[in-house]
UniProtKB/TrEMBL annotation:
Membrane disposition: Multi-pass membrane protein
Entry's transmembrane regions: 12-38, 58-79, 91-116, 214-238
CDD domains: uroplakin_I_like_LEL (cd03156)
Subunit structure: Interacts with SLC19A2. Interacts with NTRK1/TRKA.
Keyword Glycoprotein belongs to the record: yes
Protein name: Tetraspanin
Organism this protein belongs to: Gymnorhina tibicen (Australian magpie)
Keywords per UniProt: Glycoprotein, Lysosome, Membrane, Transmembrane, Transmembrane helix
Annotated compartments: Lysosome membrane; Membrane
Function summary: Structural component of specialized membrane microdomains known as tetraspanin-enriched microdomains (TERMs), which act as platforms for receptor clustering and signaling. Participates thereby in diverse biological functions such as cell signal transduction, adhesion, migration and protein trafficking. Regulates neuronal differentiation in response to NGF by facilitating NGF-mediated activation of NTRK1/TRKA receptor tyrosine kinase and subsequent downstream signaling pathways. Plays a role in the inhibition of TNFalpha-induced apoptosis.
PROSITE patterns: TM4_1 (PS00421)
Record-stated family: Belongs to the tetraspanin (TM4SF) family.
InterPro entries: Tetraspanin/Peripherin, Tetraspanin_animals, Tetraspanin_CS, Tetraspanin_EC2_sf
Any one GO cellular component localisation term in the record: lysosomal membrane
Amino acid sequence: LSPGAKMGCFTFIKVMMILFNLAIFLSGGTLLGVGIWVKVDGQSFLKIFGSLSSSVLQVVNVSYLLIVIGAILLVIGFLGCYGAQKESKCLLMMFFSVVLIIFIAEIAAAVVALVFTGLAETLLAGLVTPLLKEKYGVDDTFTHIWNVTMTKVHCCGLNNYTDFNNSYFYETRGSYPRQCFGVSPPLAHPHLRGCLLQGCFQQILEEIRTNAGVAGGVAAGIAALEIAAMAVSMYLYCRLDEK
């Protein structure tokens, strides 16, 4: 290619890099703002989006998840956008390094999820079950999230109804949550109903397996974008040496 063509290609890729990372920066700011809103006023968020929320997102702390993802996207967007605009080799290398670290972490997480599913279930149960015993019936937001989850997923507790044994709710009410009984009148022992033998964790796992193809496609798309972003940042980095 002639020097003019090379410069035109460099300018085009630079502009695309700036626009792409500007979009990432704005998306990160939006997620960060929503995460802070959920943290400060969770009830309002649940009233608006509760019925649309994913069962998986109802088990984890949505506010902290959004804040972390938003902050990461803000950093990536800033490094990529400002680094390309200023043609800063330092910022471009930092952008490449951050994206590479995230890419490696995603691969490691996928391997761990595939190999250590049982361990992940044990750890999750060890974290969530004590919260059910302590917070269900005490914290309104936490209770509402689990009520919506158990109603929509048709499950009881994380593992099963025994998660509520010796809990604050059971000790004060003398019964399990009404969501554990389905639509029929409350029974003395919800395990007499077969469907209530299932905990929410297994139900959510089934939903994840059912949509594994879609999730895999999204993950592959994200990985492709990350590889493309690293390649473009390295192209700009190397071309700066020739200018």
